[in-house]
Amino acid sequence: MELIAPTVTDVVAAQRRLAGLVVRTPASSWTALDRAVHRAGAVGASVVVKQENLQHTGAFKVRGALNLLLQLPPAARDAGIVGYSTGNHAQALAYAARHVGAPCTIVMPTDPNPVKERAVRDLGAEVVLHGERLEDACAHAGTLADARGARLVSAADEPDLVAGVATATLELLQQVPDLDVLVVPVGGGSGAAAACVVAAALAPGLEVVAVQAAASPAAHDSWRAGELVARPNRTRAEGLAVGRGFALTQGVLRRHLSDFLLVDDDAITRGQHAYLTAARTVAEGAGAAALSAVLTHPERFAGRRTGVVCSGGNASEAELRRALTCDATAVPA
Hints:
Structural class: alpha/beta
């Protein structure tokens, strides 16, 4: 079945549907963070952070999950959903399923972020641990959904999910309409595709730049190749730990994305350090990836008003310790 990308009309409808159910998160700036970006080489840049780390469940994904589940027919809700995730998508589905009263099962890789696994269980979902990578969890989730007659919810190939996620970009443009470029982290690509849908319709001069972990470059390489590819999936930033491209999001990115950058895991950790020390903001690895791209590729953003999506704040204790003790010379406070 061909997947049809959402339109900005779908996004506006989603914003109305989600009114009062999601946080209208801040778009924040800090002088110290701008100073760190300037010292990294992005001279004259100013950074605006869309703080989806302050969203319900600590990440942007809940926007998409609620938008999707609120539109499920009653029979589908009663049958329940099965999802697969490294954590934030899992929490979002569990949160949305609890809101609409639907049974929810989440398949996670066998060594998940303990903060995220505990949160999923606390939200009332059944958690099944299976396989080392997201791809293993995905296959097992499909088997469980078939056996139970439940709705399998993809991590990215869901138009209603993308439309819901896109409400974050719609909010940002309402808050800060004069951005030159918007940097969005990519795992499956729902956030970047969502940003492209909104920018293409409402701010055609806005460049949308995606960023992915170099250790898990499937979406980046799919976009560069113009076809879906699988790649090794080794990043420690679990929100970016995806080993293949997704058809729906890649189709949108091919039409509208301005650029796609890679950052290594140590650069992501330095981005987390910059958030902690310059903005007193907790970001998980995936949440810091957009800022890491600005710090790693400063010439791309010099002199530009740059929006970065802090997509999640569900960092484990180990992540925070690593960020606070890392060699942060690339991002001085």
